[in-house]
Amino acid sequence: MSEEAILSRKLRKALQLLLFQHHRLPGAKGWELRKALGKDYLNIIRILNKKLEDLGLEIKIIHESKEEEDLDKARFYIVFKSISEELSSWRIDTLAILAVSIAYIATKNSVKKQELQELLKEKFPDWKIDQELNMFIRRGYLEEKDENLYIGWRTKAEVDIKKLIESIAGYNIS
């Protein structure tokens, strides 16, 4: 098999691993990519990322632990370069609840669900808050563990949290 054919096969395999959900979460862990693609899997990912740019997509690497050098434990996702395509169909109040929720949780690392609901009740009806928070949890923007809310995998992959907080606060965070 020629080198070009091998590269093409590895690119297809990488795309398959990243697009199709194998477990509870989409994407693939670094160790899964290394096992399927070989030691040079990062080079394959770089090449695939360049090809995806033409489609308005990119590969994001989200580190699940504080050790950002450990790519084996990191999760690789394919996301839109601009999430405006996905969020453009959302209502403005839904986006506002999401933005406030992400910013509030990010400043505290985690927050009691009831505390966030109390904050949101100042501007939104109870039924809307419950409905939207549950949707954000289902879609992976927020994560719920023991009545606490955390930033979800999808927020880490799709949202620039620092930029969001800066735009809400009105000044740059260093």
UniProtKB/TrEMBL annotation:
It comes from the Archaea. It comes from Thermoproteota archaeon. This is MAGE domain-containing protein.
